[in-house]
Amino acid sequence: MIHEIGRKNSIFNQFLREVRDQDIQNDRARFRRNMERMGEIFAYELSKELDYELIDVTTTLGSAAMQVPKSFPVLATIMRAGLPFHQGMLNYFDHADSAFVSAFRKHSKDEGEFIVEVDYMSCPDLDGRELIIADPMLATGTSMVKVHKALLKKGKPVHNHIVTLLATKEGISHVRKNAPPNTTIWVGAIDDELTAQAYIVPGLGDAGDLSYGLK
After folding, report:
1. What DSSP designation does 95 have?
2. Cα gap 152→204, rounded to integer Å
3. CB-based contact 28:210 (threshold 8 Å)
4. Rounded distance, CA 146 to CA 134, Å?
5. What is the pairing mode between strands 183-191 and 97-107?
6. 92 with 44: CB under 8 angstroms?
7. What's the predicted TM-score (pTM) here?
8. For 179, which DSSP code?
9. Over the stretch 1-42, which tens digit does the pLDDT of each residue have?
10. What whole-number distance in Å separates Cα of residue 47 and Cα of residue 50?
11. Minimal CA–CA distance to 157: which of 188, 123, 109?
């Protein structure tokens, strides 16, 4: 299943517009904050799909029956571009465990060719957990598939959620072909084009550089 939340009118699209705008991008703090805000909105929308249970809460005047999540997910992200996006989701899923993966494109002499290498991972046991992997950009889908497979070595989640701000049809297709059947994709907007270097067009540029400076 794919949820494209930018298709409906909401304040989400204002934040998306600002992170795309090349003039507003010059304000690095604002870029990070908008990434965080959109992470919060994704967390809210995704929370509707979790399992809930009824509990009684005691107030100073009585008790109230409340529907609350049965458990909290594991939030995973790909460093470094995913960190502000991850923080937004963590703001709402504040009881969640976190996982971090370092992955990078290793280019050949032909800059159009690359492989993705995972060289660091910190992750709790995933057996029976809801796993959410958040990364701002889903271009070819190669990095996401490689990272997802690495995370699954830590256990079998009850459900997988892949959350990305911008994706291409090619990237979504690649993820769908390689992800387990119990996987849901959440995307802000889908762009049509990839450059020869596998960057999304119109996209927004390099989210990591825009957040933290040039590598």
Report:
1. T
2. 30
3. yes
4. 14
5. unpaired
6. yes
7. 0.92
8. S
9. 899 999 999 999 999 999 999 999 999 999 999 999 999 999
10. 5
11. 123
Question: In sequence order, what are the residues at sequence separation of 6 or more whose Cβ sits closer than 8 angstroms to the Cβ of residue 109?
Answer: none
**Judging by beta carbons within 10 Å of its beta carbon (0-12, 13-18, 19+), is residue 36 exposed, middle or buried?**
buried
Contact by Cβ (8 Å): 27, 211: no
Tokens of 30: 């604002």
According to DSSP, the β-strands at 63-69 and 74-79 are: unpaired
Specify the pairing of strand 2-4 against strand 183-191. parallel
> In order of start, what are the domains of the chain with their CATH numbers?
2-47+74-212 (3.40.50.2020)
3-state secondary structure of 5: helix
Burial class (CB in 10 A: 0-12, 13-18, 19+), 67: exposed
Q: What is the pLDDT of residues 127-154, one digit of tens each?
A: 999 999 999 999 999 999 999 999 999 9
